[in-house]
Amino acid sequence: MNVKRGLWRAWIFVSVLWVLGAVLLSASMAPASFAKKYSYIYQMRSDVPDPNKVDWTKNFYDLMQSPSRNMLSSTFDVVSYSNGLTWDEDVKKGTLISAEFPDNSKLYLSAQMTKDDQNYVAKQFWNQRWWRYGSDIIPFAAWTVAPPIVLLILGGSFLVWVARGFARD
Question: What share of the chain is helix, strand, coil (3-state, %, to 5)?
């Protein structure tokens, strides 16, 4: 009985140390995981005949819907590192604009969008940050909680089994 109690206390001690270490490490790494580059996913107008055969020389709003005028729900996608480099060059050329946010995330938008649309999309991007944070924190949470649980289930069962082998009949 004392072995069980001792193993339980050891598991609690090791788990607390693990969780504290994981939380401290995650707290230092999490802000960097929030600082990603994103692009707005544009929604084409319904009267564009074939989205695969678009004449990209047309006016932007002849092809795309206005997010603010149509009150569209905005969706965003993470920009890969290699695309982010070329998109930064496009910002310098003036074909794209980038909006930077307090969490160091960056949103790329077409320079052809109106200021109203840019502000509308940027506001929706900022309002959706908690969903992005949640999806970014899930791996940290799993990394924090899973090892102590696995240790309890597997390690505890194994050590109790070994300890019972030494028990008197």
Answer: 60, 10, 30
For 28-54, write each residue's pLDDT tens digit: 887 777 888 999 999 988 887 777 788
**Residue recorded with tokens 């004449």:** 55
Residue 142 lies in domain? 2-165
Q: How far is CA 30 from CA 15, 134, 137, 142, in A?
A: 21, 11, 7, 14
Number of domains in the chain: 1
Mode of pairing for the β-strands spanning 37-40 and 106-110: parallel
Rounded Cα distance between 115 and 93, Å, is 18
User: Radius of gyration (Cα) for the chain, nearest Å?
Assistant: 26
The model's pLDDT over 111-149, given as tens digits with 9 standing for 90+, comes to 999 999 999 999 999 999 999 888 888 888 899 999 999
Measured distance CA(69)–CA(33) in Å, rounded: 33
Tokens of 125: 């991007």
What residues have CB less than 8 Å from 84, skipping those under 6 apart?
Answer: 37
